Every structure is written in C-alpha cells, then in structure tokens.
Amino acid sequence: MFAAYERRLSCGPSRFDAWMHGDGSAMNESEIRGAGLFVGKGECISCHTGPYLSDQQFHNVGMRPATINFSAPPDVGDKGAAVGVGAALESQVNALSAYSDGYDDRLPESVPPEWLGVFKTPMLRCIHLHPSFMHTAQYTNLGQVVAFFSAGDSRPEYGTNELHPLDLTLDEQEDVVNFLKALTGPGAEPSLLEP
C-alpha cells in the first residue's frame, strides 16, 4: 500500500517535457545548451537516461566522505550497494521470498564484488528541490554537483571511480544546472501531501 502511495508522488510534466513535445519557447537558450551538454560533452546521459533520467543501476562516482556539519560525523565506511543489497538478499521478506507478491528482476542472486562502493543513480526529476545532493549529502546546490562531475577525478573510499575529467567550463556548468532546473514539474497533487 505504501509503495502505491509513493508512486503517486510524481514530479509531473516539466518545461523540458513541453520543449520535447515541440514547444520551442518552453526552455530558454541556457537550458537548451545545458540539454545539449547533458547528452553530449557532459556525458550525463550515460547514467541518467529514461523517463526519470536514471538508469536505475549502481555506479561508483568517487565520492569521498566529508564532514557535512559539526553535529554529524563524516559518512566513513559506507560500502554502498555491497552492503545494502547484501542485507536485502539476507532478508526473509525480500522480493525473492515466499512473502513477495512478485519478483521483477531488480534484486540480483548475489552481490558482485565490483559493487563495493557503488550507489544507485538518482532520478533527476525535480532534483533541484532537494535540500542536499549525493549519497553523502555533502553538496547543497546543483552547481557543486556539476563541478564535482566535471572534475571527475576523486578517489573513492572503496572501489574504482567510473568517472573521468570532463573539463566543462564554468559557463557550461551553469547551463547544465539551468537544464536540471527545467526538469521540475508541478509536483504531487496537494491532497497527497496532507497529513
């Protein structure tokens, strides 16, 4: 029942969707350039694909733990999907169990060794409304995220970084951020958000 409710919390159609359906005025020039960079030089589309702009796969982008604020310690020792999926496989109520109402092939039979330090690609619809970004929550704006991916040279705590430097200029980074903001729709129906 909870999953059925969550599925209704949709971002909804965005200006990007209107532009894709032929409304040439739905996005400005910076957002259009950002869309081109997203699928081109920025290589974002290699992981952020499909209607929700996520391949729903696991990747290692080299994010290292850092202190986010003084009240919380750095997110040290997070082995990502290697632990999370492993715990799901051991659960007596996972999608493969007798209690499941259907298996949809999302849970593997075992955890591959290369999943050490990988995390699931987030969906980008309404992404700029998030209060923080990355699995460590250490970035507070999309400019920081795009700059991180442009640099592409971080050494992860575990596993191997899949990224490489993209060398996006500051103007190109700004265009990508503007494009990401154009992915915002009206959000969920207000009545679904009431307690």
Task: Lay out the secondary structure.
Layout: H1 2-7, H2 15-20, H3 29-39, E1 58-59, H4 81-90, E2 119-120, H5 142-151, H6 170-181
Antiparallel strand pairs: 1-2
Strand and helix order: HHHEHEHH
How large is the count of helical segments? Answer: 6
CATH superfamily caption of the largest domain:
Cytochrome c-like domain
Sequence of strands across the biggest β-sheet: 1-2
Overview of the structural elements:
With about 200 residues, this protein is mainly α. It has 2 domains: about 15-80 and about 115-185, Cytochrome Bc1 Complex, Chain D, domain 2, CATH 1.10.760; about 80-115, no CATH class. It is built from 6 helices and 2 strands; from the N terminus they run αααβαβαα. It has a two-stranded antiparallel ribbon with strand order 1-2. It is globular, with a radius of gyration of 18 Å. The mean pLDDT is about 85.
